Automatic annotation (TrEMBL):
It comes from Paeonia lactiflora. The chain crosses the membrane at residues 468-487. Belongs to the aldehyde dehydrogenase family. CDD domains: ALDH_F3FHI. This is Aldehyde dehydrogenase. GO terms for biological process: aldehyde metabolic process; response to abscisic acid.
């Protein structure tokens, strides 16, 4: 009997087809297009989070041992801010944008109408399982779409809670949650969607993009990469080290896509920087960081093994200048700093996504730019300096999803900035209006009356008509007058 029940609940291609069919029916009804529906669903999201804050914090602790303060700030507070901002701006975003027309189409008017794409798929990540699941959902709802959310199975407590809460608080005819792993995700990717939004790593990103290509489905890929931090020698070292620590170990213990991945500084300054980092790390997490309740644990044994392999690599194991302790039973790794690891080491050839931080030294701080640009483009790049010319050179020469000067990760919270990658760190962007735009089609609309019907556009074509059309296309008022009167332009 139990086996029969299990067979009934398997989510396969047939179930995915049925699901998308139902959602297309809902979208075709027009209900998701109205301002009232969009606003009500965003308000329901806020209520859902307010009513279930403790359950959300508990789920995040179960999956990642995420400290309550981190859970509140980076998942609950940021999500609510996203909903509130979208509600405030929604009517303005939905209003058609008037644009100028040209002399060629006179008399006419035109506008850009934002219309929902239709039925979209959102595949989210495990490291911030509520924020990275629901922030794209905010954009999809604001734009008027029906959607499927596929949370990450790597954070099972959060995935289960998301499925339960969205079923209770949201319009289930338009917003669905599918739990599961590779089988379920593959079944979803076989379907035709109007957009796919994926947050995760490049390996799976390529699978998502290949599946989308079969249906010519547009994608947003929020990936990652090795985000560098340049530290100049003219900075407030205490503040700089605290902000690096907050962005690295204070952001899910390094398990964040925009977490600092490696530091670049000069040979003369490296030891001062290391001493400052050591001092502040002890202030924050104590003499035995493995016992600290303010550090998230590694998400599971697979990721622990991956990080242990980086840590124990013969090329870097003797380069540790701080930390290195690990506790496999409790999935904990201490904040670890390396100095001058080789370029061909494992740790410098993949995104770390954990509490390990290499420091690379250069002769001059300007040498950092060439090293960064020799690698694939990162999701974020950071610079600590008081040198105005160095700031300008950094902005001009470094290509990354986002840049931040004299801090780390905080550009994430600014709703008026696009958040997304470039090159191998991703494509497309979201947050604020960029989320609305990511899930909208910008439809061009032009209006004309029956007046002003120019015979010059119709056969038979004559030299006079050609002169007039040339003048119209060039926008020359004098040329148009000359052409109308048959004069040669002087």
């Amino acid at each position: 009997m139990a086996l029969e029940e299990e067979k009934k609940t398997v989510f396969d291609a047939e179930a995915a087809t049925s699901l998308t069919k139902d959602l297309r029916g809902t979208f075709a009804s027009g209900k998701t297009r109205s301002y009232e529906w969009r606003a009500s669903q965003l308000k329901n999201l806020i209520k859902m989070v307010n009513d279930n804050e403790k359950d959300i914090i508990d789920a995040l602790h179960s999956d990642l041992a995420k400290p309550e303060l981190e859970a509140f700030i980076s998942e609950i507070s940021m999500l609510k801010s996203s909903c509130i901002y979208s509600l405030k701006q929604l009517k303005r975003w939905m209003t058609p944008e008037k644009v100028k027309t040209s002399m060629t189409t006179f008399p006419s008017s035109a506008e850009i109408v934002s219309e929902p794409l239709g039925v979209v798929l959102i595949i989210s990540a495990w490291n911030y399982p509520f924020l990275l699941s629901l922030d794209p959902v905010v954009g999809a709802i604001a734009a008027g779409n029906a959607l499927v959310l596929k949370p990450s199975e790597v954070a099972p407590a959060s995935s289960s809670l998301l499925a339960k809460l969205l079923a209770k608080y949201m319009d289930c005819s338009a917003i669905k949650v599918v739990e599961g792993a590779v089988v379920e995700t593959s079944a979803l990717l076989e379907q035709k969607w109007d957009k796919i939004f994926y947050t995760g790593n490049g390996k799976v990103g390529r699978i998502v993009m290949a599946a989308a290509a079969k249906h010519l489905t547009p994608v947003v890929l929020e990936l990652g990469g090795k985000s560098p931090v340049i530290v100049d020698s003219d900075v407030n070292l205490q503040v700089a080290s605290r902000r690096i620590i907050a962005g690295k170990w204070g952001s899910n213990n390094g398990q964040a896509c925009i977490s600092p991945d490696y530091i670049l500084t000069t040979k003369d300054y490296a030891l001062q920087l290391i001493d400052a980092l050591k001092h502040e790390l002890e202030n924050f997490y104590g003499k035995d960081p493995l016992e600290s309740k303010d550090l998230s644990r590694i998400v599971n044994s697979n990721h622990f093994s991956r990080l242990a392999k980086l840590l124990d690599d013969d090329k870097v194991s003797k380069k540790i200048v701080h930390g290195g302790q690990k506790d496999e039973a409790n999935l904990r790794i201490a904040p670890t700093i390396f100095l001058d690891v080789p370029e061909d080491s494992l740790i410098m050839n993949e995104e770390i996504f954990g509490p390990l931080l290499p420091i690379i030294t250069v002769d001059k701080v300007e040498d950092c730019f060439e090293l960064i640009n020799s690698r694939t483009k990162p999701l974020a790049a950071y610079l600590f300096t008081n040198n105005k010319k160095l700031k300008e050179k950094f902005v001009r020469n470094i290509s990354a999803g986002g840049l931040l000067i004299n801090d780390t990760t905080l550009h994430l919270v600014v709703a008026t900035l696009p958040f997304g990658g470039v090159g191998e760190s991703g494509m497309g962007a979201y947050h604020g209006k960029f989320s609305f735009d990511a899930f909208s089609h910008k439809k061009a609309v032009m209006y004309r009356s029956f007046a002003g019907d120019a015979s010059a556009r119709y056969p038979p074509y004559t030299p006079g008509k050609l002169r007039l059309l040339r003048a119209l296309m060039s926008g020359s008022i004098i040329g148009i007058i000359c052409a109308l009167f048959g004069w040669s332009k002087v």
